[in-house]
Amino acid sequence: MARLRVFLFKTGLWEKLPVPKQILAEKPPPPKPTPLYKPKPEQHAHTTDNFPRAANAASLSDLPAIPSWNKPPEPHVEEKTPLFIGFTRNWRLLQQVVVSYITAGWPPEDIYVVDNSGVMHSNQHELLGLQNPFYLNYQRLTALFGIKVITTPTLLTFAQLQNFFTYTSLEKGWDYYFWAHMDSPAVSDEEHEDEGQEYKSLYMRAVTVLRETMRPEYGPLAARWFAYDRLSLVRTKAFVDVGGWDTLIPFYMTDCDMHERLWMKKFIIEDAKAGLIYDVASGIEDLEMFYLRGQSKAKRDEVGQTSPPEPSPPPPPVMKPDGRNSPAYHELLEKLDEMQRSKNDDKAGRNTWQSAQQGGQGEPFYRDGDGFEQGISMTMNFGRDVFEAKWGRGPCNLREVGLTEDDAWRVVPGWEKEEVQRKAREDREREAKERLKKEQEV
């Protein structure tokens, strides 16, 4: 009978039947809903490794030599100089920043990449492929480059990762540490020479800043910023004294919250210079460019040309006798400048590199690329709301409007607005009248 009803309803014959309609009035249940899918994401470009020579190297001796004037000091300086670089996704950018610091003189054994991809030991066990945004070449970093990799137990937010840097420093007894953004390659300034002093690599200039801030007369240091905070020097105790980063504000605005609280407690945060540090969203196609010195690639390619070359640009600064400040060096700077401008001018946003890869299907801990990006964005917006609830306002200049560390979570939301201030005055006046009335009745 049920099948007959369905057939009659579907064909419309039930309307024409002479039998009473109430017999057939029981409609079939609506079809069970099925998942509706969004359009398939656009296919991103195939990811290639941007250091071919390292991909084919069997040992450190197969890599180009670090420019002699940027080699780390031997023996190591007396101070401890750990450098944290956090990683979540985009191997090309991570490898680029690691190579940049190595060729700028940072001792490889002092560099700690924190694998915050959230894939546990998958990278260490080589279970992910290059197309996976969370891929990291663990063996190359450790065995070939000679740096260290620390794996977080799960995916951490920016605030949690910063606290992880501080916690690790406490565990290892480091009074100071450096940390760098993975999208900010660094280069020694080969034109810079302090008056009356010899040339120093980016690393040795950073050590000089560290020594300066360690002197008692410097004051209560919290941090020194190089190119804003693309590279930062942190005094561990200062970050602990203010309670660390507020993990309830996961991403954006958590730096504002942390730095304002440090300033509220009279800690010092000052700028410093150590070299050239860029903010980019792409990777140089061949990282060997960070090692090369001498003639520029354009000049090398001109050898054997039969047609006259195009008019030459103004000559670059004179190369130093030891090879510093060469045409190849300036070619590297021009490329990094171009990449930085491209990032700043990108109408799609400055951090498109974070979602540039969509691969990894079928591999451990696979996450949909667009979904992951959307989830992160939602978490960022949540953090902005928490910051505003904590301080009663959205802008970052907390101290300028009279807030102190004791005001956190104690101020009325929107307290700066005239209507909020007026209502507060009216409430106080009403409460005062009520108290006076009660006192008179007694």
Features:
7-stranded mixed beta sheet, 442 residues, 12 helices, single chain, alpha/beta, two-stranded antiparallel ribbon, 9 strands
Helix content: 25-40%
Mean pLDDT: 89
Strand-and-helix sequence, N→C?
HHEHEHEHEEHEEHHEEHHHH
Number of helices: 12
Distance between the termini: 84 Å
SS class: alpha/beta
Q: Major beta sheet, specifics?
A: 7 strands, mixed
Shape: flat
Gyration radius, in Å: 30 Å
The main sheet orders its strands as 3-2-1-4-7-6-8
Beta strand %: 5-15%
Strand tally: 9
How would you describe this structure to a colleague?
The protein is an alpha/beta fold and 442 residues long. The protein contains 12 helices and 9 strands. It has helices spanning 2-11, 52-55, 91-103, 138-144, 158-172, 202-214, 236-241, 254-264, 297-302, 327-345, 369-391, 418-441, and strands at residues 83-87, 111-115, 148-151, 176-180, 186-187, 221-226, 231-235, 268-272, 276-277. β1, α3 (91-103) and β2 form a beta-alpha-beta unit. The longest helix has 24 residues, at 418-441. It is flat, with a radius of gyration of 30 Å. The model is unreliable at 300-309 (pLDDT under 50).
Summarize the structure.
This protein has helices at residues 2-11, 52-55, 91-103, 138-144, 158-172, 202-214, 236-241, 254-264, 297-302, 327-345, 369-391, 418-441; strands at residues 83-87, 111-115, 148-151, 176-180, 186-187, 221-226, 231-235, 268-272, 276-277. With 442 residues, it is an alpha/beta fold. It starts with a helix and ends with a helix.
